[in-house]
Amino acid sequence: MQFDTLLTPINDFLPCPTPQAWLDEAKKPERLPILLQDHLVCELKAGQTAMYLLRRYACNDESSKHLLQWLKPFEDFAYRFEGSLDDLKRAEKLSKSIIGRSDFEHSDLIISKMVLLIREELHHFCQVLEIMNGRGIPYENITASRYAKTLIQNCKTHEPQIFIDKLICGAYIEARSCERFAALSLFVDKELSDFYISLLRSEARHFADYLELAETISKTDISQRVKFFGDLECRLINDQDSDFKFHSGSYFPA
Ligand SMILES: [Fe+2]
Ligand SMILES: [Fe+2]
Description:
This protein has 254 residues and is mostly helical. It has 10 helices and no strands.
């Protein structure tokens, strides 16, 4: 599949393109370390979000415990500075199959999509870390941008709407990431450009999977909630932001 074909559903779904002000900032060589450090953490957070949804809604108790162990080496690295890239590469794959809850008709669909998504995000984590190591960019525990947390803070607080809202937020976060990787690929060096382009296929599928899950699982039409989060997402992407990160808005102090 070509670049444009992959991006068409992403650009159709997103309420606005990334503003030029963010791109101009992202082009500055001095911004590369923070972009890569934030990208690394975003890959782990994408895996953790999918893991939460799997454990909360789809898998049985034994599988839930096993899933926690899968992420542990990555969380140890990110939050406790323990382990190495080689340790993480050995931990990328899940060693047991995951069994669904018998009382939820969509468990198997969620498991099939989210287990693949987590595996890919953990692989991306290792790829970003390898690129950082190759460039002598240290891993630092940085603060999260306002983007994902504001989306999640605006989810309803009752079931079943909270689940559907979180799936819709997942679709926006994956779609925006995909759009920014494509935009960044046009002006970074060849190694990074090739890497960002290689991410497009899986990130575009993650977007489509989240949206499909929301549409399939919701018993009501989701278009109003998609529009609500789209309006919010557009504001987060366009409004002034003094914190430059991968998902930031468009103003940065000198
Ligand atoms: Fe990813
Ligand atoms: Fe993703």
